[in-house]
Write a structure and sequence with these properties.
By secondary structure, the protein is α/β, with parallel strands linked by helices. Helices cover 34% and strands 22% of the residues. The chain has 10 helices and 12 strands. The strands form 3 sheets. A 6-stranded mixed β-sheet has the order 5-6-4-7-8-9, sandwiched between helices. A 3-stranded antiparallel β-sheet has the order 1-2-3, with no helix packed on it. It has a 3-stranded mixed β-sheet with strand order 10-11-12.
C-alpha cells in the first residue's frame, strides 16, 4: 500500500551533515535520529455495526465516515488521517466482515479482508459478549482465523464498554485472549470517547518510523464528491426502514461553484419502482427530509452554503450485477 519514501531526500538538509554512523548532527553537534517521524496505516476491522466508523470519526475529530444504527452501511474504503506532533496515523475504515453471498457484500468483505494484510497494524473491534454467550460469534471466529494467518500485529478493541458492566468486559477479554494473541487489548467506548487516550498511547508505540505519507493538515484522501454522496446515503439509512437503504446507491452528477453557493446534484439509484415511490414519499416529503438533513451536514463539512438537488432513478438489480456495481463506483 505504501510506496517506500526516499530517506535520502529527508536526510539532505542544507546545514547538518551525515556522519558515518548514520546519525545526522546539527550545527551544535547534538545527535539527532535520522528521521523522527512515525507514520503507519492502521486497519479498522470487525463485524458490521461494532462501531468502526464511529471510532474513526472520534480519532480524527470529524464526521467523515457515515455511522448509522443499521449494519453494513460502510461500503467503500475510507481513510482518516490523524497527525499530532511527529506521528501520523492513517486509519482505514472498512466494511464489516461477515458471511454473505450477495455480490455487493462479497466485494465489500473481500476488500476488508485485503486491508488486513496491507496495513502496518490492525484494530479489531468487538462488542462485549452477551451474558449468555461463552464464545465469540461465528463471524468473529472467521476473523480470528484471518488474524492468526496474518503477519500483522492486531490490537483487540472491546468497544461499547458503556453498555456492559466490568465483569462482562473482563469476561470478553478472557474469552478472546484464549482464542487469539493480540499486541494489546483495550476496552473503550467510541461513542462516549472513553479510554481513547490509552488506545492512542498504544498506537503510538506501534507506529513504524517513517516519514509522513500525507500533509499534516490533511484529514482524508477522499474527494469532496465522495463524502457528499456518503452524507446523502447516511440520511437515507437514517430516515428509511428495512431493506430499502441497502438497495440504494448515490452518485454526484454535478458539483459546481455558483457565486452564492455550491450547486450539487445527486443521482439516487434504487432497484425497483416501488422503492422509488417510498424514497420520494407522499408529495416528495421523504426526499425533502433526506435532502435537508444531508444538506446541513454537507454545509458543515465543506464550510459553505450548498444547494442540493436529489434525483431518483431505478437501476434494476444493481446490487447483483457486476457491471452496475462498477458503474456505481464499487470496484
Ligand atoms: P460500523 O458498522 O462498525 O462502522 O459501526 P458504526 O460506527 O456505524 O456504529 C454502529 C452503531 O453503534 C451506531 O448506532 C453507533 O452510534 C453505535 N456505537 C458505536 N460505538 C458505540 C459505543 O461505544 N457505545 C454505544 N453504546 N454505541 C456505539
Ligand atoms: Mg461503518
Amino acid at each position: 500500500m505504501h510506496s517506500s519514501h526516499d530517506f535520502e531526500q529527508i536526510l539532505a538538509p542544507p546545514f547538518p551533515f551525515t556522519s558515518q554512523s548514520g546519525f545526522i548532527f546539527s550545527e551544535s553537534n547534538t545527535i539527532e535520529m535520522s528521521s523522527q517521524e512515525h507514520c503507519g496505516f492502521i486497519g479498522l476491522i470487525g463485524r458490521p455495526n461494532v462501531g468502526k466508523s464511529t471510532l474513526l470519526n472520534k480519532l480524527i475529530g470529524q464526521d467523515l465516515s457515515i455511522t448509522t444504527p443499521k449494519p453494513q452501511t460502510t461500503r467503500n474504503r475510507l481513510i482518516g488521517i490523524r497527525t499530532q506532533g511527529a506521528s501520523q496515523m492513517v486509519f482505514i475504515d472498512t466494511p464489516g466482515i461477515h458471511e454473505s453471498n450477495l455480490p455487493l457484500n462479497r466485494k465489500m468483505i473481500d476488500y476488508a479482508v485485503k486491508t488486513l494484510e496491507e496495513t502496518d497494524l490492525n484494530l479489531w473491534l468487538v462488542e462485549p459478549l452477551k451474558p449468555h454467550l461463552i464464545e465469540p460469534h461465528p463471524d468473529d471466529k472467521k476473523i480470528l482465523d484471518l488474524i492468526r494467518n496474518s503477519n500483522n500485529k492486531t490490537i483487540l478493541v472491546i468497544n461499547k464498554m458503556d453498555l456492559a458492566d466490568r465483569a462482562r468486559v473482563l469476561r470478553t477479554i478472557d474469552v478472546f485472549s484464549q482464542n487469539g494473541s493480540f499486541a494489546e487489548i483495550i476496552p473503550l467506548s467510541a461513542l462516549k470517547s472513553t479510554n481513547l487516550e490509552s488506545l492512542l498511547e498504544q498506537l503510538e508505540q506501534y507506529l513504524p518510523e517513517h516519514p509522513f505519507f500525507f500533509e499534516s493538515d490533511q484529514l482524508t484522501d477522499a474527494s469532496e464528491r465522495f463524502l457528499v454522496a456518503e452524507l446523502v446515503r447516511e440520511q437515507i439509512f437514517r430516515k428509511l426502514q428495512q431493506e430499502l437503504p441497502y438497495s440504494t446507491a448515490v452518485q454526484v452528477e454535478r458539483f459546481e461553484e455558483d457565486p452564492n453557493c455550491l450547486r450539487i446534484d445527486c443521482l439516487v439509484c434504487v432497484e425497483r419502482e416501488s422503492q422509488k415511490g417510498i424514497l420520494i414519499g407522499k408529495g416528495g416529503t421523504m426526499l425533502k427530509q433526506i435532502g435537508t438533513a444531508a444538506r446541513e451536514k454537507i454545509e458543515k463539512l465543506l464550510g459553505q452554503r450548498v444547494f442540493l438537488a436529489l434525483h431518483v432513478k431505478v437501476v434494476k438489480q444493481w446490487t447483483r450485477k457486476t457491471h452496475h456495481l462498477q458503474a456505481l463506483g464499487y470496484h
